[in-house]
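Q: What does the assembly look like in three dimensions?
Context provided by user:
Components: three
Sequences:
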Amino acid sequence: MFQNFRLAMTWVHTWFGLVLGFVLMAAFFFGALSVFDREIDRWAVPESRFPAQPIPSFDRMLRPVFADMQPLPAEVDAARSQVRGAMPSHFDLPMRWGAYTTHRDPVLNLFAGYELPNATIPDATVFTSRTMDPRHGTLMSDDQLKIGSEFFYPLHFSLNLGWMDLGYWIVGLAALIMLVALVTGVIMHRKIFREFFTFRPQKRLQRSTLDLHNLTGVVALPFHFFFAFTGLVIFAGIYFPVAHTQLSPLHDLHERLESEETGLPHKRAGVAAPLASVDAMVAEARRRWAGQGMAGEVGFLSVEFPGDANSYVSVYRAGTDRVALVGNGVHFKASTGELLREDPPASAVDGVNEFLTGLHLQHFRHWLLRWFYVLGGLAGCACIATGFIFFVEKRKRQHARDGGQGARVVDALAVTTVTGMLVATLGMLIANRLLPETLPAGWPGRGDAERYVFWAAWALAMLHAFCRTAPVARALPAPAWREQCWAVAGLAVTAVLLNWVTTGDHLLRTVSAGYWPVAGMDLFMLAGAALAALAARRLGPPRRGGSPCLTR
Amino acid sequence: MANISNIHMSTRTQVVLRIAAALLGGYAFTWGFIALGMASLFAAGMPFHDAEHLTGILAFLVFLGVFLWAFAAHSLSRVWLVLAGGGVLMAATASLLQAGMT
Amino acid sequence: MPDALILLVAMLACATGFGWLALAMAGHWRQVVGTSSCPPTVARRLRVLAGAALSLSLALCLMVDHPSMAALVWIMMLTASALSVAFTLTWRPGLLAVLAPPSWRRRGR
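A: Here is the predicted structure of the complete assembly.
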């Protein structure tokens, strides 16, 4: 199909990069935001603006909440298709209780899974979760959307498109193409060492865009490669569910063997039993970790088959001081508190896997490294955005001569994906500040309303982008870029002002109190506003004389 | 054996078939690699989850490699044969190994 | 805090190393120093120094964190400092003149 290897790789880079670039833009941008997802949550949920807390006492605070917990009506409805016959009115067979926190969480996440009776598939479960203020044991409202960890974060790996896991598959394909784009990019780039530090904004737009594309791609190449790669490894079970399909007999064989080996039951006994003091088990686990020179906090706690004779409690250490995720699990028999098992040190493969997943999921405490990750993510966005711009610049004169609309369409989609995405993000944050606590009956919940605003704002940005890129078909720059840059600057400043007006936590207060989650958000948005305004001015109105180049 | 490139085919069809080979053929090959990898490592005594994770890590590098090869190779028919055929062969071998163990 | 200071020094070492690596390239030498090209002996020395500076920054990172984290911090630090050097060369190349002392510029002519 191609005359030579390099041409083939160039074709692949151009066309796969273009098509999947739109998805990758979202993955990189919302991935970068996800580094500070919990800080964004603090901005969006002002009631949670207090310092991070360790896991509270299970016996006094968590157990009563778990005992009363039931799935929400919406969750029951969603699980109806998995049940033959009627849904029970009350779920009495919890499969699992779990509590989860990191060193950055002031609030605690609780979840519970319940067995579905008469299920169409084995082990069908309905899950529900709650958010708790661990200082008082009170539950927070279910309708306060944690915009960081519950919207931006899942957006980056699933586009929040849950139907048939379609979003996961699209992002997965995009991640594979990212790897392809990096390798083909290196193959195409003839002067990768000589041009390592090269950026010449004074040259023609096409050349300077290519310079920036190469620069942001190459200097952050390890980052881009590792994040795309580890993202794929993390979801390997979704993309290649071999162990649950073709090799499920092997998987079941292993479960039986492992159960015998570890002494951890994998089925309930069907006999009721009490729950001993979990606090005592946690204390014992922490004592054991300290004894091995790994003193630490609890990151994850779970109770399997609560109330059953086979129930066991697992306590995992929060991985704040190293890259590997939560680990060093200690397991206790739930009815007596007797130690069942201490997880052995990780095997070599386990170690590699934990390092790769931990690198991506970042439970560690290291503020510099987090900011470096944001830098990497934004470099990825710059790489993709300059890729689009280069594509358009290279072809728009030819398309203008031929009367084609290709360059114009790509430019409009690029505006939608780059500045439009920022408009949607800021629009959602503004809605978060403006919407009342509870909306009138018949309206969607507050969290849902915020989601609708996000998608609506993005759709509007897309409409604007398509309307205001007509000049590209005449090989001229599109005013859409400049206009959306001004919009971004305005929206960002508005969001910061609204935070001040609605919560009183203005920058002087948050900075002097050292409350960095909110101060950081406001400062980041103001810096973004400044950059957007600078870009808008640089993109200024066309010169008299209609030069097709940007003003410089 | 007929060589696909000898058959007259529009460029568009060729492009579509290449892309399909890279994506679908690549997926099939990778699936086969994972299945065979997991089954043989487990049969050789490696713990199940270790086998799962190791093949999972290698799989995406394999997919990357065959994806690029699908576009670099001259013969489209060979690409289909190796990727789809190889995938099926590896998967079948994995099932045979599994049958021997369970 | 000493940790923050050590990491700052590590970052400066990285930037210095990349600055030297850039200077060893003819085009960037011209941008910073103004003379036609970097004498080959000086270019060799600059690359050796660059290697030393980057190794020093890795060692400093290892002083601060668990090795698994230090490796990541260092790799990302390379990215951040390479970008800084690139943008300095674009907009303020004169700032890097400090990395090429006059005595080196005359050598090998």
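Follow-up: Chain B has a mean pLDDT of 92.
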